[in-house]
Amino acid sequence: MQTQSPRLEIRNLTRRYDGRLVVDDVSLSVMPGQVTCLLGPSGCGKSTTLRMIAGVEMQDSGEIYVDGRLVCDTVFRVPPERRHIGLMFQDFALFPHLSVAQNVGFGLSGDRTAKSARVVELLERVGMGRYLNAYPHELSGGEQQRVALARALAPRPGIMLMDEPFSGLDNRLRDGIRDETLDILREQDTAILLVTHEPEEAMRMADEIALMRDGRIVQQGAPYNIYNAPVDRSAVAFFSDINVIRGTVRGALTETPFGHFLAPGVPDGQEVEIVIRPQHIKIDFDRNGRGPNPTSQDGTPARGVVERARFMGSESLVEFRMDHDGSVLKATVPNVFLPKPGKPLWLMIRRDRCFVFPAGARRR
Length: 364
Ligand SMILES: Nc1ncnc2c1ncn2[C@@H]1O[C@H](COP(=O)(O)OP(=O)(O)OP(=O)(O)O)[C@@H](O)[C@H]1O
Ligand SMILES: [Mg+2]
Known about the structure:
- With 364 residues, the chain is of the alpha+beta class.
- Helices cover 22% and strands 34% of the residues.
- It is elongated.
- Adenosine-5'-triphosphate binds at residues 17, 22, 40, 42-48, 197.
C-alpha cells in the first residue's frame, strides 16, 4: 500500500532578527485533510514560521516543500502568489473599496454563475449571507473576520495557513465558525497549519499539536499524547494549573510525604519535581482525627488544612496548606465541594497521574 505523502513539509527552518534566533530549526509536516496546531506563548515565533511558509518572509536556512516539491530554500524561491497557499492572518485586511461579495470572489476564476454560487455558499456558512452587498467599513471586527475567512476558503487552497483566525469572535460564535471552517477545509482535503496560543483551541481542533517555545518545537504529537506525556514541567503548565512537590533521588526513588515516586535514570542526589494537575489530587476526610482510608492505588496520604475553597461553575477549587512544609497545593473537585477554611483533610497523589522531572530541566 502506498503511504500518503505530506501536503506541506518544512525542514530545519531558521530565522534570526538582529542576531537573535526567533525560529530555531523547526521541522514539521501536515497531511492533506489534517490540522496541525502550532501552539505556544506570545513571541515564540509562530507567526514568523507561518510568514516564511507563505513566502512573505525569507528564512535564513531550511527548506519548504509542497506535495514533495521544493518551494523555497536559501537559493530557490517560488513567489508567494504561485504557492497556492491560503492565508488567514492575524492582521487580515479586506479590500475597503469592494463589497463583501466582491471581497470573497476576488481570487476566484471561472464562470460568473459558479463564482457567485461559491461566494454565497461560503458567506452563508460563516453566517454572513445577509451582508453580500455591504462594505467592510459597515461591519464589526468579528464580521469582517468572518468575511476574511470566507475569502481565504473560496479558492479551495491545498494548504491553509491560519494565524489566530478566530481570535476576534466571541465565545459562542467562535465554536460554530470554527467547526464550520474546519468542515469546509476537510471537505476539500486541505492541509491546515493553525497558529494559536490557546491550549483549549489547539486541543479542540488539532489532529497534531506542535508545542513551540523560544523558537523551537519542544514536543509534537496527538493532543492526547501532549497532554498525558508532557516532555517537561512547562509543557504540563501550558495546559493547566499545576502543583509541584520537590524531592531528592536515592536509588532511583524519591521519597516525599506522599510516599515514594519512581525516578528512573535520575542520578542519586539529583533534585526532582513531581508535577500533578489539580484534578488529579484525591481528597479524603479526617474521620474525626482517625485519618484517611486510602485504596492501594492512592499512595500515602499527607495532611493539610483548607485555606480557601471557591466554586468555579463545573468544579470547585480547594487550596490546602500542607502540614509537612507549609506549602500550598490546589485540588479541583467536580461540582460543589466547599469545605470551611481550617478544616483538616488528607491529600493523595496517584502515581499514574503525576510526572517526575529533574528539577529545573527544560527541553531544548
Ligand atoms: N520584523 C521583525 N523584526 C524584528 N523582530 C521581529 C520581527 N518580527 C517578529 N520579531 C520578533 O520575533 C519574535 C517572534 O515573533 P512572532 O510574531 O513570530 O511571535 P508569535 O509566536 O506569533 O507571537 P504572538 O502569539 O504574540 O502573535 C518576537 O520576539 C518578535 O518581537
Ligand atoms: Mg503571532
